[in-house]
């Protein structure tokens, strides 16, 4: 029996009578993580991983929230539900459902590289795996985080030496905290736009080490401001708030920066290729590690990934969802709302993919 089916309200578990990350208000919602396209207001009951409670409350207020630590399971109408780290943002989880001898995993959004700001991704064996495909094209390959940290700190140090403030635009939840975690605070003061501070507080409350951050008015003299790294959400771009920084250098951190022309369209000096989502090799490795024979693809480059998986002999199909949409959504939707659509990439121009280990548990030949 199918443990998850698409319905107009969201992905539905028939035996359990609940939804996973529903986009319309429902009686029972199981939430993978706090990004706006997955955790929406208005449900009568929320179940989420305990590690994400602070974030969900910071974003949705005093919701009727029940939590479960990673790895612990709860039986609801005969369905065993458990959460397993997805490595995407603080509190992000894959939802494992077990019922009648079948195991299904809905992974929400995920990333394989450990980043130091949330529990790292853990592969979960299952019969059916529900995956995102935000960056599901072979051209998307992320540099290691240590390399990105070195690039960002070098850019900041060079600007500071020239007496120019560094302004780095990034999404407020997840991306901003990862960058904070990477910054070398010895270079200068770190200033954050007000929109980021509530989420930083949720991370600090959860025990994630972030360097000290200042609000812009807390930085005394103008000279200190010229040594500063300023983190701001993309909505601050072009706003009067930035004028106080004078002739600043700016940059944008996003997976879309992998595509030529995106930095120019964003109108910034530098682009850093930083994403909270799995890159192409990451998606394939994660799917192979589940051993699943059936794969459902929810959002992003859906047809490309479905076709690739089908060619590997998997039963792959699309699930029509509303993830990656909405004003509060993360990277993918932010790109859509601000640039019209995600950058178009001609698949024919993409690099050929390296085939991963054969999904289904057999070793690669
Ligand atoms: Zn997300
Ligand atoms: Zn998403």
UniProtKB/TrEMBL annotation:
Transmembrane feature ranges: none
Highest taxon above the source species: Bacteria
Region (Disordered): 323-365
Ranges of compositional bias, category Low complexity: 324-335
MF term (GO), any: RNA endonuclease activity
PANTHER family registered for this protein in UniProt: BLL1145 PROTEIN, CLEAVAGE AND POLYADENYLATION SPECIFICITY FACTOR FAMILY MEMBER
Name listed for the protein in its UniProt record: Putative mRNA 3-end processing factor
Species of origin: Azoarcus indigens
